[in-house]
Design goal:
Blueprint: H1 3-11, H2 15-26, H3 32-45, H4 54-67, H5 76-87, H6 98-121, H7 123-126, E1 127-129, E2 132-134, H8 137-158, H9 166-179
Antiparallel strand pairs: 1-2
């Protein structure tokens, strides 16, 4: 596997530029891993030009599931969590193989890095009360850690689905450690 282009691919935050990198590097001699990357691309952004990021949407759905309370009459919330896991390929037969699991984990890590970037730059996210005042850098990190804890850990715990969300949890940890080294203690696992 050519690490050079994949490293650049997973560092790039702009969806259009990521698509160009993907197309340039899988056109001539696509591997099975490249086909899986393309499948994840389509699941995340759609078949044509990149539109909204469906995986960031999945993260937000997981957050809302946890914030909606633990009452799950009829198992509707658990089914929704299972659908999210399927949409993100977390329970795909392909991820039983290490090479595909690593690719999925890198893609999900990228999703969390994108989520953290958008959150940390959002004025509504970084403000204290009604847009008045700004959180300190440490306050922003704590708030992001709280969000990630809810998405990657609290929601799967709530539905007893830690095994199904294991790859997502590893990706969240990896992204948080990369972005905020020595701040892992803020996460509630």
């Amino acid at each position: 596997m050519d690490k050079t282009w994949t490293d650049e691919f997973y560092r790039e935050m702009d969806a259009d530029k990521r698509l160009v990198l993907l197309k340039e590097n899988i056109e001539s001699n696509p591997t099975e891993e490249d086909a899986f990357r393309k499948k994840l691309w389509i699941a995340r952004y759609g078949r044509k030009k990149p539109k909204k990021d469906a995986y960031v949407g999945c993260l937000m759905e997981l957050k809302y599931l946890a914030e909606g309370g633990t009452l799950d009459i009829g198992g509707k919330k658990k089914r929704q969590a299972a659908r999210i896991a399927a949409d993100m390929y977390l329970n795909s037969p392909e991820v039983q193989e290490d090479r595909y699991r690593e690719i999925l984990q890198e893609e999900l890590k990228h999703v969390f890095l994108k989520f953290m970037e958008v959150s940390s730059q959002g004025r509504g996210f970084t403000s204290l009360v009604f847009g008045m005042g700004q959180l300190s850098d440490e306050g922003v990190i704590k708030k992001i850690a709280e969000q990630i804890s809810t998405i990657a850990f609290q929601t799967p715990h709530m539905f007893h689905m830690d095994r199904e969300f294991y790859i997502l949890q590893r990706a969240a940890l990896s992204a948080f450690r990369e972005e905020y080294p020595n701040r892992e203690h803020f996460l509630k696992k």
